[in-house]
Amino acid sequence: MATSPADPLTLEVVELIGTVVARYHQEYEEAAAAHALTGAQARVLGLLTLEPTPMRKIATKLRCEPSNVTGIIDRLETRGLVERRPDPADRRVKVAAPTAEGLATARRLRESLRFAREPLGELTDVERTLLRDLLKRMLGEDAQV
After folding, report:
1. N or C: at which end does the chain have fewer Cβ atoms within 10 angstroms?
2. Which spans in the chain are helix H?
3. Can you give the CATH number for the domain in which 48 is found?
4. Measured CA distances, 28 to 23, 32, 43, 121 (Å)
C-alpha cells in the first residue's frame, strides 16, 4: 500500500528522523571537540578503524572532495593518529590507516557517544534488529546480514 508523502504518519516519521539525526550530529561534534578533533576528523578516524582506506574511497564514503580528505588526513597524521601506507593490493596507491593512538582515540570517542547507545540499549534484540532492517531498507540496502 503506497502512502502519500504528505500523510500525517509519514510526516511524523520524517520529523522524528530529522530530530534523531540532529541530536546525533550535535553529540558527535561535542564528543569530537572533547578529543580535540573536528567532526570531519572524527568521522574519518572512525571510518579508518574499520580498515585502511585509500583517500579517494574515503571521499566517496563521506561525499566530499578528495582534496578535503587529504587535508583531514594531513592533520590527523600530524597528531600521530593516522599514517599513510602503500596499498598492499596496488603499491602505487596510498591508504590511510589509524595508528595505535588513533585506534585508542576512536575507541574513546565511540565510548563517549551516549545519545544513540543508551536509547538503543533499552530496546530488545528483536526491536534493534527490526530497526536496523527498516533503516537498511530505507537506504535501499539488503536487510539480510
Report:
1. N
2. 8-34, 39-48, 55-62, 66-78, 100-112, 117-121, 125-138
3. 1.10.10.10
4. 8, 6, 9, 18
Range of the domain at 32: 27-113
DSSP string of 52-78, one letter each residue: -EEHHHHHHHHTS-HHHHHHHHHHHHH
| Contact between 42 and 32 (Cβ < 8 Å) | yes
Written as nine digits, the cell of 30 is 561535542
100 and 38 in a single domain? The answer is: yes
Both 102 and 74 in a single domain? yes
Find cell 599513510 and name the residue: 84
What's the number of domains the chain is made of?
A: 2
pTM for the model stands at: 0.75
Closest by CA position to 98, among listed 113, 78, 112, 77: 77
Nearest by Cα to 33 from 113, 91, 121: 113
Q: What is the pLDDT of residues 33-92, one digit of tens each?
A: 999 999 999 999 999 999 999 989 999 998 899 899 999 999 999 999 999 999 888 888
What's the grid cell of residue 80? Answer: 600521530
Tell me which residue of 55, 57, 60 sits closest to 82, measured CA to CA: 55
